[in-house]
Specification:
Length: 196
């Protein structure tokens, strides 16, 4: 999967896309109108050796990444950290914990698993349609709480690391209809709010 395709899949088609570069102190954020522009910048910065991140929301204006500026979200997501000082020491241990969580909770597999860094990974459950932050937040909180209840340790960071290699290692998943939190999971592996 190409980086622009990845961004197109997980982000709404409306709003600005934010790409961040990790600085010595803090981040530098740039906003783009299209996944192609955002991907080109991310890949160029990655090639320069920069640590590149993407926001998991689109924004109303290119002013900032504040919550009041969020336009839409198109997925539920989480970051699974792996390392000597992290909840899981190996990727295999984290993958086994994810599988145990999915089985115990009845939650369907994520639409995408993106291996990031040396050992961690990101999970994405892509929605059928973008939603506003006020619609998205109760589902995100419910998913986080479900993970905690079943002992699946995640990092609740608001953005994710993106590199050419991470996007290339994305694993697409599809699954059959399941119910969870008032959401329906379609055969395409996307969620939609069954209340609307």
């Amino acid at each position: 999967m190409q980086t622009a395709d990845f961004l197109r899949l997980i982000l709404a088609g409306t709003g600005y896309i934010c790409i961040g570069i990790k600085l010595e102190k803090g981040y530098s954020h740039r906003f783009f109108s299209t996944p192609e522009e955002a991907a080109a910048y991310a890949l160029a910065e990655d090639a320069r050796g920069q640590s590149v991140y993407h926001a998991c929301a689109t924004f109303i204006s290119p002013a900032n990444r504040r919550q009041v500026n969020v336009a839409y979200l198109k997925c539920l997501f989480c970051d699974v950290d792996v390392g000597d000082d992290k909840p899981y020491r190996t990727r295999l241990e984290a993958e086994n914990a994810m599988i145990a969580f999915l089985k115990a909770s009845g939650m369907p597999p994520p639409t995408l698993i993106v291996y990031s860094g040396e050992r961690g990974f990101h999970l994405y459950w892509v929605l059928d349609a973008p939603v506003t932050a006020d619609v998205w937040k109760p589902y995100a909180v419910a998913l986080r709480d479900l993970m905690r209840r079943h002992g699946f340790a995640i990092d609740t960071a608001r953005s994710a690391h993106i590199t050419a290699s991470a996007a290339a290692q994305t694993l697409c998943r599809s699954f059959t209809l399941r119910r969870r939190f008032g959401l329906l999971i379609s055969r395409s592996g996307r969620m939609k709010n069954k209340r609307t």
